[in-house]
Amino acid sequence: MASNTTPLWLFDLDNTLHNASHAIFPAINANMNRIIQRVLEKDGLPSDEAAVNHMRRHYWKLYGATLLGLVRHHGVGVDEFLHEAHLFDDLTGMVRAERGIGRWLARLPGQKILLTNAPRRYSRELVRHLGLHRHFSHHIAIESMHVHRQLRPKPSRLMLRKLLARHKATPRRCILVEDTVDNLKTARELGVRTAWVTQYLRGSQALLGHIGGQRVLSRRPAFVDVKVRSVRQLPRRLAALGAVR
């Protein structure tokens, strides 16, 4: 548990600590499309590319994650979906990331938690491959994001409140580091400080994200405290985040 004076960092994984848009997100999108196509075919609905894209985007806009719509309306199992969506022939060969990220994480004062909407098996393998696992005191993957027995991934306010309560952390002590603006917006509404990582946004925009899409902005919105191209720049922005040693 962090002290009352040190920051509690909440780090996203994909397109924050590595370039998921290079190869991983395209593979996830293809896997997701196959799942959605099967769902549409089972329900006797059109299952062409336009129909698949419409369902993915519709559920993402409605629930914040395509998975939630498939679970609630089509009986898709959470574990089944996560497993199939994150099947890769060679995950480590698909990874692209900056060198030395661990050194920059080590320069950030306070406790660090990995908070990702990705599944546990995938995120653990990836973080270990990147050599970043030692920097995080906790690893919270999507399987752990339940509130009142309901799956509540980011940008769920309920999930974030539960996380802060569990760690006895006030919102102002916490800093969410993310590429996804909707997650940052929700966190800021709760009083959490926010850092927006932007260097992989171009790839995200082209792919519409692995959960269906996100609003893509270029200027720093009011709910973002600090906009950085890379996590490497965070140590220089500690004052702006209220996280000075």
From TrEMBL:
Superkingdom field: Bacteria
Keywords recorded for this protein, A-Z: Hydrolase
UniProt-listed Gene3D superfamilies: 1.10.150.450, HAD superfamily/HAD-like (3.40.50.1000)
A single MF term (Gene Ontology): hydrolase activity
Pfam families: Hydrolase (PF00702)
The keyword Cytoplasm belongs to this UniProt entry's keyword annotation: no
Record bears the keyword Ion transport: no
Protein name (record): HAD superfamily hydrolase protein
Lineage: Bacteria, Pseudomonadati, Pseudomonadota, Betaproteobacteria, Burkholderiales
